[in-house]
C-alpha cells in the first residue's frame, strides 16, 4: 500500500509518499503560481508518486473547505476562491486510490497525536504559527472536524482591541495580527528592515526594540486566544509550533504571560503550553495519517 500525502497551502503545495522515515529529498514542494495552480499541483503529485501504485491520498488543505463535497477554497489561491473540486481531480490522477480531504488544522492535530506532543493527552489544542495560523482541536482523544470540516479555525477569532485587516474580509483576526507574515509586516511598518522571520527573532533576542515589540505583540495575541479557547473546551495542553514559535523563540515569554493573565479559572490551573516537537513536515505527516484512516 502506497500512501501519498498532499499539503495545499495559500502559497505552496507539497507532496510526499508517506512512510515511517521520510527524507527531505523525497518531499516535493512548489510555490503556488498566479495561474494554472492545478496544473502545477498535478505535475508535482505525479513527480512525488514516481510511478508507484497509489492506494490512498490524504490531503491537508488550507480552509475554507467543504469536506463532504471534496472542495477547497483557500483565500490565498485566487483561482480557487470560489471552490475547486480537489478530491475529484486527484481521483482522476489515481483512479484506484481512496482520496480523503481534511482541513490542515485537523491534519496538524492528527500529526501531533500520532507523532508529536499530544499522544497521551485526550483534550488538547495543536497550533502552528506560520504564514497563517493553523489549529486543530482534540477532545476525548478524537480530532474535532466540524459540520463542514472547518473546525479549529482559531486564526479567525478576534484579538481584543485589534483592527488589522484580514484576507478573509474581516478585521482583528488572530491570523492578521500574529501569523509570521503579519508579524513581519507590522515590524517593517514600524521601520525595521530585516528580511525574514529568523532575522526578526534574532533581532528580538539581540534587543532590537522594534523586533521585540513585534514579537511581543504577536505572542500576546496568541496567548489571549489560547486563554479564550481553553475554558470553552476544557483542555489541559496546547502544543504550538511553526517558524515563529520555534523552541527558545522570544515569542514564548509574552505568549505565556498572556495565558497566565487571562486563563484564571480554577479548572485551568494545570493548563500547559509547550513547543511542538514536529518540524516543517507536520501537515504532510497529518495528511499521511489521514490517508490510512479507516472509513
Automatic annotation (TrEMBL):
Q: InterPro entries recorded for this chain? A: ATPase_NBD, ROK
State which Enzyme Commission number(s) the record gives: 2.7.1.2
Q: What class of enzyme is it?
A: transferase
- Keywords noted in UniProt: Kinase, Transferase
Q: Does the keyword Transferase apply?
A: yes
Record carries keyword Endoplasmic reticulum? no
Q: Give an example GO molecular function.
A: glucokinase activity
Protein family (similarity comment): Belongs to the ROK (NagC/XylR) family.
Descriptive protein name: Glucokinase
Which species does this protein come from?
Nocardia transvalensis
Amino acid at each position: 500500500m502506497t500512501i501519498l500525502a498532499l499539503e495545499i497551502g495559500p502559497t505552496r503545495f507539497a507532496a510526499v509518499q508517506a512512510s515511517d522515515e521520510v527524507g527531505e529529498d523525497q518531499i516535493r514542494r512548489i510555490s503556488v503560481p498566479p495561474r494554472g495552480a492545478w496544473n502545477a499541483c498535478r505535475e508535482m503529485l505525479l513527480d512525488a508518486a514516481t510511478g508507484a501504485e497509489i492506494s490512498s491520498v490524504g490531503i491537508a488543505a488550507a480552509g475554507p473547505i467543504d469536506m463532504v463535497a471534496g472542495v477547497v477554497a483557500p483565500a490565498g489561491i485566487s483561482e480557487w476562491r470560489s471552490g475547486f473540486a480537489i478530491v475529484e481531480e486527484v481521483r482522476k490522477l489515481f483512479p484506484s486510490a481512496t482520496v480523503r480531504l481534511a482541513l490542515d488544522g485537523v491534519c496538524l492535530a492528527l500529526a501531533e497525536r500520532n507523532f508529536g506532543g499530544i499522544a497521551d493527552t485526550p483534550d488538547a489544542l495543536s497550533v502552528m504559527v506560520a504564514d497563517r495560523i493553523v489549529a486543530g482541536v482534540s477532545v476525548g482523544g478524537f480530532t474535532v472536524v466540524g459540520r463542514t470540516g472547518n473546525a479549529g479555525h482559531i486564526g479567525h477569532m478576534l484579538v481584543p482591541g485589534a483592527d488589522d485587516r484580514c484576507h478573509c474580509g474581516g478585521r482583528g483576526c488572530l491570523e492578521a495580527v500574529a501569523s509570521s507574515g503579519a508579524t513581519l509586516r507590522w515590524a517593517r511598518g514600524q521601520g525595521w528592515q530585516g528580511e525574514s522571520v529568523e532575522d526578526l527573532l534574532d533581532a528580538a533576542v539581540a534587543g532590537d526594540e522594534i523586533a521585540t515589540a513585534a514579537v511581543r505583540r504577536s505572542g500576546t495575541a496568541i496567548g489571549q486566544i489560547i486563554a479564550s479557547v481553553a475554558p470553552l473546551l476544557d483542555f489541559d495542553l496546547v502544543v504550538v509550533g511553526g517558524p515563529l514559535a520555534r523552541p527558545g523563540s522570544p515569542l514564548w515569554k509574552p505568549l505565556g504571560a498572556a495565558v497566565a493573565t487571562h486563563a484564571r479559572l480554577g479548572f485551568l490551573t494545570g493548563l500547559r503550553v509547550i513547543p511542538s516537537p514536529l518540524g516543517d513536515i507536520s501537515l504532510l505527516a497529518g495528511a499521511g495519517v489521514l490517508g490510512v484512516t479507516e472509513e
